[in-house]
Design a protein that fits this description.
The complex is a heterodimer of chains A (136) and B (310). With 136 residues, chain A is an alpha+beta fold. In chain A, 24% of the residues lie in helices and 38% in strands. The longest helix of chain A has 16 residues. The chains are: A alpha+beta (136), B mainly beta (310).
């Protein structure tokens, strides 16, 4: 594992089911995440993914790659273009820094209308390297 | 999400600013202790198959941190008057919509089933008035410290934009945009008014050209006449417009690059078939559609393939 290494991309189909299931699993009952009619009244073309789901997907992207022994220390994200139903979000990651067992990964998630999320994840890996798939 | 307004005469900002540093939640408690069913629901929803989140030694996904503090449908009773006042001021000012923009979490120790959650939230900052694509409003940042069993387990900084939605342009914008008519293409639009689709033809080399141009791309000739299109064509290529919606357009709709039998191509709407049934090679037939008192446009009516594709 080296600074500059790119993680394999992860494509997330942004289905209506994912948006609603993610909102409810995160106990977020804001109507704009499940009620299209109200979302439109509030000026949005449709329901959109809540930030907690995006946060969870960014965490999943990292642990999918580095394996179950990786420990998330920090996740910081900023949202841009909303994730609407029917879109696809493509997550990419790049290792920005390594300090002993700690790595910092820069993550972006783009959808059909722009950049949905930018973020930085700090994680620690167990001694003796990583169990990451496809890296050494 | 940029763009800053001048703050000189923003009385509201001064009132909002006074809430910085005040608590938003005091001694909040999680509605449920950390538990396996909620963890499983989260993992199912997000497609997270990390084995660390299942089995006897399971931990909660760290990114669930905020979920344990959520009030759910019933809400929290531990929210302070200060935070409600702040939101109320914004509501009164027309900033009735909310969108979350930033989330920064630090995880100090894993949360495990059985952990009882307590938390405190402070209003960290209120931005000056900002104008964004969504509308004009204020960013409110809170910081939450989450404890489990009396021990600090994580911190969570959260930023929302509380805003007055930008008014969608309606009224005159409900009509389609007008074509730009100039000396080089006026003849084309005059033809459309008569329900004729005219293709330019070079007077020197006889090459057909579309869209209309002052000169011939093949020989450079400047003289031309026109040929009236027979009206038959096929979909050479197409896109389906879903987003963003423009006034007077009702997405989703299909935009086709139509190859006319004469050999030139024209961009237009494909009508008469559902947007998701348009296919490359689909035969189409020219027709003219009136959109309002002034505007007539050539469009192409598609014919669904019989048999085969569906």
């Amino acid at each position: 594992m080296n600074v500059g290494d790119e993680l394999p991309v992860l494509e997330i189909e942004v289905t209506r089911t994912l948006i609603v299931a993610g909102a409810i699993a995160s106990r977020d009952y804001q109507d704009v995440h499940h009620d299209p009619e109200v979302a439109r009244q509030k000026g949005s073309p449709d329901i959109f993914m809540n930030i907690l789901t995006t946060n969870g997907l960014v965490g999943r992207y990292i642990t999918d790659h580095f394996g179950p022994t990786a420990v998330l220390r920090k996740v910081a994200i900023r949202l841009g273009a909303p994730n609407y139903p029917g879109d696809t979000m493509v997550l990419t990651g790049r290792i920005e820094a390594i300090d002993g067992p700690t790595a910092v990964v820069r993550v972006t998630g783009d959808n059909g209308i722009g950049r949905h999320v930018t973020g930085t994840v700090t994680l620690t890996l167990p001694a003796g390297g990583t169990s990451a798939r496809g890296t050494s | 999400m940029d763009g800053m307004d001048r703050t000189g005469d923003d009385d509201l900002f001064a009132r909002l600013k006074a809430y910085e540093g005040r608590p938003a939640t005091l001694a909040g408690t999680g509605k449920d202790p950390v538990n396996l069913p909620m963890i499983r629901h989260w993992c199912e929803a997000l497609g997270d198959t990390n084995p660390a989140y299942t089995g006897p030694g399971a931990i909660a996904p760290p990114t669930m941190l905020q979920a344990w503090t959520m009030g759910g449908l019933a809400g929290h009773t531990t929210r302070t008057p200060a935070y409600d006042e702040l939101l109320g001021l914004l509501d009164e000012a027309g900033c009735t919509s909310v969108v979350a923009t930033d989330c920064e979490q630090e995880y100090l120790r894993p949360l495990r089933p059985g952990d009882e959650i307590t938390f405190d939230t402070v209003i960290e900052s209120v931005s000056v008035r900002k104008t964004t694509k969504l509308g004009t409003g204020y960013f409110v940042t809170t910081r939450t410290r989450i404890h489990a069993g009396g021990e600090l387990a994580g911190t969570h900084r959260f930023r929302i934009l509380k805003y007055a939605p930008a008014r969608r342009k309606k009224a005159p914008a409900d009509t389609r945009p007008r074509p730009v008519v100039n000396r080089d293409n006026a003849g084309f639009w005059e033809g459309v008014q008569r329900h004729e689709l005219l293709i330019q033809r070079c007077a020197d080399c006889r090459t057909l050209r579309f869209p209309w141009l002052p000169g011939c791309d093949a020989c450079g000739g400047l003289d031309w006449d026109t040929v009236r299109a027979a009206g038959d064509g096929t979909v050479h290529s197409y896109v389906v417009m879903h987003h963003p919606p423009f006034p007077a357009f009702d997405p989703p709709y299909a935009v086709g690059l139509i190859e006319l039998v004469e050999g030139v191509r024209i961009v237009s709407n494909v009508v008469g078939v559902p947007y998701d049934k348009v296919r490359i090679g689909m035969p189409v037939r020219l027709e003219f559609r009136r959109y309002d008192d002034e505007l007539v446009l050539p469009v192409f009516r598609g014919e669904l393939f019989r048999g085969g594709l569906s």
